[in-house]
């Protein structure tokens, strides 16, 4: 389905990003995996992708660093010879009630989750516009749609990603580049494992499908949005949340 | 010299080797939309290894040439 295409996935070492990398590799797309701290797991993910018969490489980069992302994107285009799909997935949490949240707790989450996506979209977007073809997929969150106690920073960044998605979709549509967002609900990853068991139990009660999502549930949609099957979809936000936010 | 180079980049961009361009030619007359203008200015910047401020005041080829000349002076 994605033969000959190259996808760049930020936060691709683990969790949802890892599942996306593997699903894209399963669909025969090449993958550039960007990670910040998880070097070992990025290597593992890369090797699993290679075992699926595609070209894969990992790159260490802090997506909140404008110049570092510029240099890295140029390197990826050089290494792979093409670039077709950008998945802005890198994200961190630093949950606290607003009243207890320090300025740096807010800033760091915005820097990685929102500005990081801007940095990547700017540098990769310039290439995709020239190519007159490309896909940008932003991993937002149901938190950004409905808000969440203790996540004013994360929810603001994820809601911001939706604005970024819609503006990018409008600006780039004339050049054949689409941009969509996926809003996952509670997905079974390291990020949600940090939640206390009683909170997890409370959350399950709110999900009509009565289970946490799996990273593959997000990855499947990401492959679809990367493929020719979604040619006429842009500026869309699609929830994958088991019905949590209806 | 800046003007000749800009014209060359523009002709390549539009894939029209005979395109008539003067300092007064506007982006609108050249049928370049705002994204074309940004792409073109980026290519010009790269070619001259400099950067210029992209704002709404950029309307003609002469505007771009003027800013490049100032930037590399």
Automatic annotation (TrEMBL), chain A:
Q: What CDD domains does the record tag this protein with?
A: BKR_SDR_c
**GO annotations under biological process?**
fatty acid biosynthetic process; steroid metabolic process
Residues bound to NADP(+): 89, 154-158, 187
Q: Which GO terms describe its molecular function?
A: 3-oxoacyl-[acyl-carrier-protein] reductase (NADPH) activity; NAD binding
Keywords on this record? Fatty acid biosynthesis, Fatty acid metabolism, Lipid biosynthesis, Lipid metabolism, NADP, Oxidoreductase, Steroid metabolism
Query: Which Gene3D superfamilies does the entry link to?
Result: NAD(P)-binding Rossmann-like Domain
Q: Which residues cross the membrane?
A: none
Q: In which pathway does it act?
A: Lipid metabolism; fatty acid biosynthesis
Which SUPFAM superfamilies does this chain map to? NAD(P)-binding Rossmann-fold domains
Q: What class of enzyme is it?
A: oxidoreductase
Catalytic site positions = 154 (proton acceptor)
Reaction(s) catalysed by this chain's protein? a (3R)-hydroxyacyl-[ACP] + NADP(+) = a 3-oxoacyl-[ACP] + NADPH + H(+)
* EC assignment: 1.1.1.100
* Sequence ranges assigned to domain Ketoreductase in this UniProt record: 5-190
Can the keyword Flavoprotein be found in this entry's annotation?
no
What family is this protein classified in?
Answer: Belongs to the short-chain dehydrogenases/reductases (SDR) family.
User: What is the role of the protein in this entry?
Assistant: Catalyzes the NADPH-dependent reduction of beta-ketoacyl-ACP substrates to beta-hydroxyacyl-ACP products, the first reductive step in the elongation cycle of fatty acid biosynthesis.
Q: How does it assemble?
A: Homotetramer.
PANTHER family (alphabetical): 3-OXOACYL-(ACYL-CARRIER-PROTEIN) REDUCTASE, 3-OXOACYL-[ACYL-CARRIER-PROTEIN] REDUCTASE FABG
Q: What is this protein called?
A: 3-oxoacyl-[acyl-carrier-protein] reductase
> Could you tell me which species this protein originates from?
Acetobacterium paludosum
What would be the name of the gene that encodes this protein? fabG
UniProtKB/TrEMBL annotation, chain B:
Residues of the Carrier domain: 1-73
User: Which pathway does UniProt place it in?
Assistant: Lipid metabolism; fatty acid biosynthesis
Q: Which Pfam families match?
A: PP-binding
Q: Give the subcellular location.
A: Cytoplasm
Alphabetized GO MF terms: acyl binding; acyl carrier activity
Q: Which InterPro entries match?
A: ACP (IPR003231), ACP-like_sf (IPR036736), PP-bd_ACP (IPR009081)
User: Which parts of the sequence carry O-(pantetheine 4'-phosphoryl)serine?
Assistant: 34
PTM summary from the entry reads: 4'-phosphopantetheine is transferred from CoA to a specific serine of apo-ACP by AcpS. This modification is essential for activity because fatty acids are bound in thioester linkage to the sulfhydryl of the prosthetic group.
Q: Which residues form the signal peptide?
A: none
Keyword Hydrolase included in the entry's annotation: no
A GO term (biological process) for this protein?
A: lipid A biosynthetic process
Alphabetically sorted, this entry's keywords are:
Cytoplasm, Fatty acid biosynthesis, Fatty acid metabolism, Lipid biosynthesis, Lipid metabolism, Phosphopantetheine, Phosphoprotein
**Gene Ontology CC: one annotated term:** cytosol
The entry's family comment says: Belongs to the acyl carrier protein (ACP) family.
| Function of the protein | Carrier of the growing fatty acid chain in fatty acid biosynthesis.
The protein in question is named Acyl carrier protein
Tell me what organism the protein belongs to. Acetobacterium paludosum
């Amino acid at each position: 389905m994605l033969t000959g295409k190259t996808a760049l996935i930020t936060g691709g070492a683990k969790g949802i990003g890892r599942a996306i990398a593997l699903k894209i590799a399963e669909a025969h797309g090449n993958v550039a995996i960007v990670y910040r701290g998880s070097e070992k797991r990025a290597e593992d993910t890369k090797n699993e992708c290679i075992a699926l018969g595609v070209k894969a490489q990992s790159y260490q980069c802090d997506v909140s660093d404008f110049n570092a992302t510029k240099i890295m994107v140029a390197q990826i285009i050089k290494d792979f010879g093409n670039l077709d799909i950008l998945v802005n997935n890198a994200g961190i949490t630093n949950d606290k009630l607003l009243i207890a949240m320090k300025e740096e707790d807010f800033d760091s989450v915005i820097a990685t989750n929102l500005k990081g996506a801007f940095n990547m979209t700017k540098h990769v977007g310039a290439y995709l516009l020239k190519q007159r073809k490309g896909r940008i997929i932003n991993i937002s969150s149901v938190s950004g749609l409905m808000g969440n106690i203790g996540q004013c920073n994360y929810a603001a960044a994820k809601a911001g990603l939706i604005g970024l998605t819609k503006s990018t979709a409008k600006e780039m549509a004339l050049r054949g580049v689409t941009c969509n967002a996926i809003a996952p609900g509670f997905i079974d990853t390291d990020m949600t494992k940090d939640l206390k068991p009683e909170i997890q139990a409370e959350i399950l009660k709110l999900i009509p499908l009565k289970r946490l999502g799996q990273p593959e549930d997000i990855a499947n949609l990401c492959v679809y949005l990367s493929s020719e099957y979604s040619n006429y979809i842009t500026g869309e936000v699609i929830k994958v949340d088991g019905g949590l936010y209806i | 010299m800046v003007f000749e180079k800009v014209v060359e980049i523009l002709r390549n961009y539009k894939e029209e080797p005979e395109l008539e361009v003067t300092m007064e030619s506007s982006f609108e007359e050249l049928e370049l939309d705002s994204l074309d203008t940004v792409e073109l200015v980026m290519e010009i910047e790269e070619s001259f290894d400099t950067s210029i401020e992209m704002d709404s005041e950029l309307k003609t080829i002469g505007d771009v040439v003027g800013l490049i000349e100032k930037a590399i002076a």
